[in-house]
Design goal:
alpha/beta, Rossmann fold, 8 helices, disordered N terminus, two-stranded antiparallel sheet, ten-stranded mixed sheet
């Protein structure tokens, strides 16, 4: 099979899997606190959905988590994939699921086809949410998958005055973005990446472009991405990898965790490596066949781990 047909097969399989998620085949109960909204930004009408836990807001307001979908998805697909609503209800934070333009984010790669100013959109969205709900402005976080993970990295670069922490999954720092990334304050980072990701290379390099149909570009290695943020935050040395206890006996993937020492308060940097893991949300569904995206690990509940990481950070000041 030629590389073209391999790329085509990969693209068709991934888009089909993401379409199933966005189309609602993975059901989730509607919550009374779920709302949708529209916002004009850059001459476009942008859309988003919000989930607010069914409890009274704390005195400082709810922490807020921005959850960014991957390429080919929309916010509803990210909601179903991550199942963050249930974690938000248990931990007590707001989750926001914005929609990209043509199902993509402008994450800083020079190869991105739609160069809309998504950073300005998110800044305006945060202004809107702070007006209408009780939001703790010192506890605003961002996570995402794939293209959404790369965009979370960009927000840590370009909107660090407002984003306290990020948790990119299956997406590291874009190589085009790294030279110009100069955050104005430290941003805590939980980097989650699989060693067998066929789309975003764990060791860095070219992103799969699906035979010319994808966004392409290059990214840093997972370890180099974490090291970049450790340097930016003024952290010390990287600690030894610690294996996490397996929780799914039949799953051959394994989870290794390593954290940087000496990071300032609220600026922790941790690298979570999914040995054998693919281009997926750990603990989420196997949204496409393993031959297409690799293995979705069952050894980690990424949504719970991300929430715990975010909420463990002291409020940004």
């Amino acid at each position: 099979m030629t590389r073209f047909f391999q790329a085509r097969r990969l693209a068709v399989g991934m888009v089909t899997g993401l379409a199933l998620l966005a189309g609602g085949l993975l059901t989730a109960p509607a919550m009374a606190a779920d709302q949708s909204g529209q916002l004009e930004s850059g001459g476009r009408l942008r859309t988003y959905a919000v989930h607010v836990p069914g409890r009274a807001a704390p005195p400082a307001g709810f922490p807020l988590v921005l959850a960014f979908h991957g390429g080919g998805m929309q916010g509803e697909g990210m909601r179903r994939l991550s199942r963050l609503d249930a974690v938000a209800d248990a931990r007590g934070f707001i989750v926001v699921y914005p929609d990209g333009v043509d199902r993509h984010w402008n994450d800083g790669r020079s190869t991105i086809r739609n160069p809309q100013d998504d950073v300005a959109f998110i800044a305006a969205l945060l202004d809107r949410l702070a007006q209408g709900r009780q939001v703790d402005r010192q506890r605003i976080y961002a996570t995402g998958l794939s293209n959404g993970a790369l965009f979370a990295q960009r927000l840590a670069c370009d909107l660090s005055a407002r984003i306290a922490a990020i948790a990119p999954v299956a997406g590291t720092l874009p190589a085009d973005l790294a030279p110009a990334c100069k955050p104005v304050r430290p941003v805590a980072v939980l980097q989650v990446a699989g060693t067998a990701d066929p789309i975003m290379p764990f060791e860095g390099g070219k992103v799969a472009d699906f035979g010319g149909r994808g966004e392409g570009g290059e990214v840093l290695a997972a370890a180099a991405s974490a090291a970049f943020w450790a340097r930016a935050n003024g952290c010390g040395a990287l600690g030894a990898q610690q294996p996490m206890a397996p929780i799914a006996p039949l799953d051959r993937t394994r989870v290794l965790k390593a954290s940087y020492a000496g990071c300032p308060a609220g600026a922790a940097v941790t690298l979570v490596t999914i040995a054998g893991g693919g281009h997926a949300w750990p603990g989420g569904p196997q949204y496409a066949r393993p031959i297409v995206i690799g293995q979705a690990s069952r050894q980690l509940d990424a949504s719970a781990a991300i929430a715990d990481f975010f909420l463990a950070q002291p409020a940004a000041r």
